[in-house]
Amino acid sequence: MDTITEKNAATFTHLSSLTQYFFPFGNYIFPILIWTAKKDKSEFVDHNGKQVLNFQLSLLLYSLVLIAIAIPIFIITIFSNVPFDAIINDDNFVINNFNFDNNMGLLTIGIMAVLIFGVLKVSEFFLIIYAAIKTSNGERFKYPITIPFIK
Predict the structure, then answer these.
(1) Which of 70, 71, 97, 139 could form a disulfide with 113 if both were Cys (CB 3.0 to 4.6 A apart)?
(2) Residue 82, SS3 per DSSP
(3) CA-to-CA distance for 16 and 73, rounded, in angstroms?
(4) 103 with 80: CB under 8 angstroms?
(5) SS3 for 16?
């Protein structure tokens, strides 16, 4: 049976990943601090700490892939109508006759990558809250779409 202290520590491990909204990389730093302080004392806290970190690392990987897809697509789409001579000669240039029809396929992929990124961030917030509630009740929670980096 998990004690209230263990449940609270595991719950705060999940909730500490919300510090990303206040501190850069807080979603990695604070869960690591709580997890490393308590992992040897409680198997329940150890399990939840690994789940939080695996989830955050998985979301980082997914976000980097989506960014690697979206940014080049938008750059290619925007600069496909800019004359190359204007870029080389550092002339002022105006994007003339920008045509969405020629770039609709690329724009669709780029917009889908941005939308998937948005869905990931919103679902991350609610999954963290849900995991904290489950953990505070003493249940083991496993995040969906998580790659087990730390075993």
Answers:
(1) 70
(2) coil
(3) 34
(4) yes
(5) helix
Q: Which residue from 6, 5, 4, 58 is spatially nearest to 27, judged by alpha carbons?
A: 58
Q: What's the chain's average pLDDT?
A: 87
Count CB neighbours of 23 within 10 A: 10
Hey, what are 31's tokens? 């869960």
Spatial separation of the C-alpha atoms in residues 84 and 60, rounded to whole Å? 35
Q: How far apart, in Å, are the Cα atoms of 93 and each of 71, 98, 143?
A: 21, 13, 49
Residue 108 to residue 85: CA distance in whole angstroms: 28
CA–CA distance, 15 with 95 (Å, rounded to integer): 47
Taking alpha carbons only, the member of 20, 49, 48 closest to residue 33 is 49
pTM over 0.85? The answer is: no
pLDDT in tens, 97-144: 566 677 788 888 888 999 999 999 999 999 999 999 999 999 999 999
- Chain-centroid distance of CA 24 in Å reads 13
